[in-house]
Specification:
The protein is elongated. Helices cover 69% and strands 0% of the residues. By secondary structure, it is mainly α.
Length: 195
């Protein structure tokens, strides 16, 4: 995994603004501290957006690389977490689109999403059924619709936050979610008619 256990820094308890400020000046230890602090969050978000661990390490690593390359442009260092999440979402979107293109032209085989690996066994039955339906449907959805659905229904983000993370208007996010709901409803009808 990309995020190896690093030695404990002398940055424990330091707020984001201070860490980002130091990292903007080229502080490697501050960058390492930010990776340690946000690595699990980035990993979890990337895992859910991708629907599995294929390409996960690459996405996590690329997200942090992009963040550190453009860190000097971050005006509000205290907003690092949200800004990093936007980078993960944008990078995942590009990866999902690239995967689809490669599959269409025969350079990549499509692997189904491992639903059992994404849902913990102690998840309530109703939530498990909903998540199973969502993840089975994801591969058929356009990348933006897929990401909006995961951010809203799996991550539980507010509509405004989904729009911000995706760099889209609230109206676009609502339209994408309505499109996803239509596909999910069709999936429910299909599953219901088979039982």
């Amino acid at each position: 995994m990309v995020l190896r256990a690093l030695p404990r820094p002398d940055h424990d308890g330091v707020d984001d603004a201070a860490l980002v400020g130091e990292a903007q000046q080229g502080g490697v230890k501050a960058q390492e501290a930010l990776v340690r602090k946000y690595g699990a969050m980035v990993n979890r978000l990337a895992f859910r957006l991708l629907g599995g661990s294929e390409d996960l390490d690459d996405l996590v690593q690329e997200s942090f690389l992009q963040a550190f390359r453009s860190l000097k442009r971050l005006d509000k260092p205290e907003a690092f977490r949200g800004w990093l999440s936007e980078i993960v979402v944008r990078t995942a979107h590009n990866l999902i689109r690239r995967r689809r293109l490669m599959s269409r032209i025969g350079l990549r085989t499509t692997r189904p999403i491992d639903v059992d690996g994404l849902i913990t066994p102690n998840t309530p039955l109703e939530s498990m059924l909903t998540l199973t339906s969502i993840y089975r449907t994801l591969e058929r959805l356009p990348a933006k619709v897929r990401i909006a659905l995961v951010l809203r229904r799996v991550e539980g983000r507010q509509l405004e936050e989904v729009a911000e993370l995706m760099g889209a208007s609230l109206a676009s996010v609502k339209r994408w979610l309505a499109q996803a709901d239509k596909v999910l409803e069709g999936e429910r009808r299909t599953v219901g008619s088979q039982t």
